[in-house]
Amino acid sequence: MKRIAIVGATGAVGQEIIRLLELRHFPLKELRLFASARSVGKTISFRGESLPIENLQDDVFSTIDLAFFCAGSFISKQWVQIARDKGCVVIDSSSAFRSDPTVPLVIPEINEGALAQHKGLISSPNCAATILLMPLFPLHRQFQAKRIVTSTYQAASGAGARLVDELQKETYAYLEKKPYSPFLPFPYAFNLYTHNSPLTESGYVEEELKMADETRKILGDETIRLTATCVRVPVLRAHSVSANVEFAKSFTLEEVYEAIQKADGVKLFEDRAANRFATPVDATGQNEIFCGRFRLDKTQPNTLEFWAVGDQLLKGAALNAVQIGERL
Ligand SMILES: NC(=O)c1ccc[n+]([C@@H]2O[C@H](COP(=O)([O-])OP(=O)(O)OC[C@H]3O[C@@H](n4cnc5c(N)ncnc54)[C@H](OP(=O)(O)O)[C@@H]3O)[C@@H](O)[C@H]2O)c1
What we know:
By secondary structure, the protein is α/β, with parallel strands linked by helices. It has helices at residues 12-23, 73-85, 108-111, 127-143, 161-175, 206-219, 253-262, 280-283, 314-327, and strands at 2-7, 28-34, 43-46, 49-54, 66-69, 89-92, 121-123, 145-154, 193-194, 225-232, 239-247, 266-268, 270-271, 276-277, 289-296, 303-310.
C-alpha cells in the first residue's frame, strides 16, 4: 500500500487520474493532491473523503512513494528531480523527459518490459502517438513496420480547458450571429488549423516530431521512419489518426483483422455494410482505442491504410499513467 501524490490534480488529466484511482481500486493508503497556489483552499472528493489541494514544498516528497505528474513540462522540469532525490518514484505525463534515453517511455501493452530499467522516473507518451501505436503495435510485431505516414485530427481538450471553453463560446457566438474576438489569430468554430506546438526549422511542428521520435523509442526500432501532419479540429474530446504503413513483410487483410482482434486495449469498430466507423464521440470516455477501415494501399505493395480514434485524456494520458502505476 503506497502513499500517492498527484501534481496537477485540478487539471484535465489530473481529474481523470483521480477518477481512475477510485474506479480501479488502486492500492493506496494515502492520496495527496497538488496544484498551483490558485487552487489551494479547494477540495476534491476521493473515496468519500474531501481531500485538500496543497501547494508543492521541497519536503513533501519524502513522505510520498509514487507521484503522478500532470502539470506540464515546466513544473516537471522544476520538481521531478526533487521528488526522485527524496526516493519518490515519478510517472510523468508531460513531454519533459520523454526523449531522455535513461527514462523509459512506456505504453504497458507494448513495452512493459522497459519498466524494469526505471531509475525513479517513467514517462507516459504523447497522446496522438499512443492512439496511433496501440493498433499499429500488433501489426508491427507480425509484419515489421518500415515507414508510416500519418495525419491527426486532434480535439480541443488536448490543449487544456481554455481551448475547450473557446471552442464552445465561439460556436455559440457563430450560431447566434454575435460578434466574437477569438484568442487564436483565426476562428476555431467550424474551422481547423495545423497543430499549435512550436514550428521547428525543419518545417515540422514539435507535435509531429514527437510522434516520430516516440514511435521509434516505444517500438525500440531506430530504423522506423514516420512523417506526420498534426491538425487541431473543432472536436471537444478524443483524437483521431489516419495512418498509411509500409511493412517489411507481406500480409493479408484477414491476418490484419486477426491480429487486431487479439490485441489488448484495441477494439475493432466498424460496420462496413453501414459505412460506419469510429468517431470521437464514440471513443469519448472509453478505455480502448477504436480502429477500423483497414484496407490495402492500392498504390504500393505491403502497405496498409487504417483509422483509429481514442480518448486522449484516458489511454492518451491518465489511463496509461495509472496502468504504469498498477504495473509498478
Ligand atoms: N490534455 C491532454 O489531452 C493531455 C494528453 C497527454 C498528455 N498531457 C500532458 O499532461 C499535462 C497536463 O495537461 P492538462 O491538459 O491536464 O493541463 P491542464 O488542464 O491545464 O492542468 C494543469 C494542471 O497543472 C497545475 N499547475 C499549474 N501550475 C502549477 C504549479 N505552479 N504548481 C503545481 N501545479 C500547477 C494546474 O493547477 P491549477 O488548476 O491550480 O492551475 C492544473 O492542475 C501536460 O504536460 C500535457 O502535455 C495532456
